[in-house]
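Person: At home tonight, work slowly through the protein below, taking as long as you need, and write a paragraph about the fold.
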Amino acid sequence: MKTIFLRGFVLAALLYSGILSACSVFLLKGKDHCVVGFNENWKTMPGMIVVNKRDIQKRNISWENLTTDHPKFAKEWTSQYGSVTFNLLGYDFPCYGVNEKGLFLVELYLEETSKVYNPKQANMFWAQWIQYQLDNYKSVQEVVDHLIDGPNIDWWPNAAGSHFFLSDAKGNTATIALLNGKYKVLTDKDMPMPLLCNNQYEKDFDNAKKFDFLGGQEKFDFAKEGKWEDRYNRAYYMLNSYQYDKKPVDYAWNILNSIHAGEWQTVIDVKNMNLYFRSDLKKEIKTIDIRKLDFTKNAQVKFLDIHTESLGKVNDQFQVLTMNKNNEYVEKGFPIGYDNKEFGTSETFVKLKENIIRFFKNILPE
């Protein structure tokens, strides 16, 4: 029995290792530009872009809350800022996003992640933890300052977790990892280049220092260094080589496509608050003018499918997010996110869907 259990545990961990497991994110910044670039490398997956309102009362949702009959919660808040998020798992559960003040936050798989637990704080499912930060803070420093007194992150059961990259409108950046039961934070002074993949920052940076573009003895041949594990080195080389040409958004796209294009790709011009995106199924680049979105309390929560057929500026293509439509994305997203076919037919998933309806029935119309 013990052997079977261990095999099951290992299998679950191996399955999870594919979840959002190979991503790349950077900030291309200078005096006249501040541009985020992100590749979500995994596989073709459903998803929606959600316009999240300010002044909405929310509550923490843990994995236990999602999958059991224990609805008790320990934390409430009212969203201070509106945001645009990319959601695989339904409303309030983003993989990444940016708020109206320019705070950007994304998670990237990190195998050696551990849990950081403060018994005085509420547990919160990892995707909602991202939304919580976007709801409440406008700068990198504010997020970092409130890590300890903020909610504990719940990961998927029996699996590793992620580290996080964040940036803000002033060009500040940080990475947050959960290692050995503690938060490990690196800020600008610790990161010669605002760039993160799926290793701890120091590991990738130390490896890159052997090349000539960082003063090392080994010549970096961009044409030959094209393997999957060279993503960090290729991105660093391109970021380091950029000469401002008034087209930083185009250069950010060039970087993303040069280091293995993601199934979801996103570029955000933070100075002008324009968000650009595309997917592997719909490769044309679309644009969202964040400043023209309605984040007010009385507005309706709206969404746009990540694989939209629309072209150009898509602000007017957002539709009202109803409970029924949200459930469609939950049905498609959670089994994929869990990376376990059996989960989609399990009693746990039935309970999860019932709970999500209860959690958001006062926010989303039927």
Confidence is low (pLDDT under 50) at residues 1-20. The two ends are 46 Å apart (CA to CA).
